[in-house]
Specification:
Elements lengths: L2 H20 L1 H29 L3 H14 L1 H7 L5 H6 L5 H9 L3 H7 L4 H37 L10 H27 L8 H9 L2 H7 L2 H7 L4
Helix pairs in contact: 1-2, 1-9, 2-8, 2-9, 3-8
Length: 229
């Protein structure tokens, strides 16, 4: 266990204690906007992402990613290697390498409208960025709408006094809230993977136990990595 494990435990513990004090009902109401936002995002995000993949923005994004990763040079230097080896030799996170290899098939090529391995890699990563943008957009908008509805109904002020069972149930909700916050942070950290100054941080992350588990088993990230619903 290292400092990153302690940080993850601290975040989850903070939300758990906070929810325990507030109780199950209050915690659920405070978490309701996020829960509704997750559901709306899960349902509508693939549709919105599919629409964006049909626009000029997607093409320009693929080109920018290809230039950033020097994809043409990588492929030309690996001309005699198998596609899996080309992906393995790229400077990208391991979970992304695994996902690229798992989805390297004609069906995904057709969905992304690509033909070559280079187009596939840039198209797949571009799709991830699009998924992130659409998820954030849908999440924020839905959260705001639900919070307005809850505030208008003023339900919280009419709740009965919480009891012990209510508090322990709230503790469970707090654990979930904390886990979601940690997953959001992990998604943000992914963007710094390519930055050399963060190399030591990710080495520390790999050597951790709890933090590494949360990073590698990120449900929100699994939603981002999916291509179709």
């Amino acid at each position: 266990m290292n400092i990153l494990d302690i940080a993850v435990i601290a975040i989850i513990a903070f939300f758990a204690v906070k929810a325990y004090r507030g109780g199950f009902i209050l915690s659920c109401l405070s978490f309701l906007p996020s829960l509704c936002a997750l559901i709306v995002t899960y349902v509508f995000q693939p549709v919105l992402s599919k629409f964006i993949r049909s626009t000029e923005f997607y093409i320009n994004l693929k080109t920018s990613i290809g230039n950033f990763l020097s994809i043409d040079n990588v492929i030309s230097n690996s001309a005699m290697q198998a596609q899996s080896e080309i992906i393995n030799n790229m400077n990208i996170p391991n979970f992304l390498k695994s996902t690229l290899m798992e989805n390297n098939n004609p069906v995904i090529y057709n969905i992304l409208n690509v033909e070559s391995i280079g187009d596939y890699i840039t198209g797949f990563i571009a799709n991830i960025f699009i998924n992130i943008v659409t998820m954030v957009l849908l999440f924020v908008v839905t959260s705001i709408v639900v919070k307005i509805i809850i505030k208008t109904l003023n339900s919280v002020s009419k709740l009965p006094v919480v009891n012990s069972l209510n508090k322990f149930a709230g503790l469970l909700v707090g654990f979930i809230q904390g886990a979601v916050i940690v997953w959001v942070i992990c998604i943000g950290l992914t963007f710094f993977y390519f930055n050399p100054s963060w190399k030591e941080f990710f080495e520390m992350l790999d050597s951790s136990f709890i933090a590494s588990f949360m990073y590698q088993n990120n449900i929100l990230l699994f939603m981002i990595l999916r291509i179709f619903g």
